[in-house]
Design brief:
four-stranded mixed sheet; alpha+beta; single chain; 180 residues; 4 helices; 25% helix
């Protein structure tokens, strides 16, 4: 089937821009779409980060689905939230091809092991400077930063309090605002 512009339907389907498949250490993994609570938390946190980043002209914030390609065919992830510093914007090439400055995973019960172990190990391998692990069920936020070749806990809060970013200069996020 061809539309008025001569674009073949099959070609459009082959180049679609919505695919929830990730590749982790060479294995393709297709997760289910997230529930509404997950999306509420992603949007709350992304809004907090985006406002700060924009007000301070620090770079750009992205939300999933957007591929982060560390190695083609080996490690291609779709973190829930990503931040790229303005001086690192060359890695944004339709998708992110390289190491973003911050990634965030909002953990769902079905993704706990994959996000806190499998993806964490890959983020650590590629030395992603900052990794946020957000757990809505516990109303908990952990911010890990790379030191040497390992992640170390930089900031933590549960139920109340504030977390701070090392990578996104001056950013503070109140747990209440993330999980409201």
């Amino acid at each position: 089937m061809t539309d008025a512009l001569g674009v073949c339907y099959n070609t459009m389907m082959e180049t679609r821009d919505l695919d929830l498949t990730e590749i982790i250490n060479g294995e393709e993994i297709m997760g289910p779409s997230p529930f509404d609570r997950h999306q509420d938390v992603v949007f709350n946190l992304a809004d907090i980060i985006r406002r700060h980043v924009k007000a301070n002209n620090l770079g750009k914030v992205y939300i999933s689905p957007l591929d982060v390609i560390f190695e083609e065919g080996i490690n291609r992830f779709q973190p829930d939230i990503m931040f790229v510093r303005k001086e690192n914007m060359a890695i944004v090439q339709g998708w992110i091809r390289g190491v973003p400055d911050m990634v965030c995973e909002v953990i769902s019960p079905f993704s706990y092991e994959r996000d806190t172990e499998g993806k964490k190990a890959v983020y650590e391998k590629y030395r992603v400077p900052e990794y946020w692990i957000v757990m809505p069920e516990l109303q908990e936020v952990q911010i890990l930063t790379i030191e040497g070749d390992k992640y170390r806990l930089h900031s933590f809060a549960a139920f109340e309090g504030v977390v701070t970013s090392k990578t996104i200069e001056g950013l503070q996020a109140a747990v209440h605002d993330i999980f409201e």
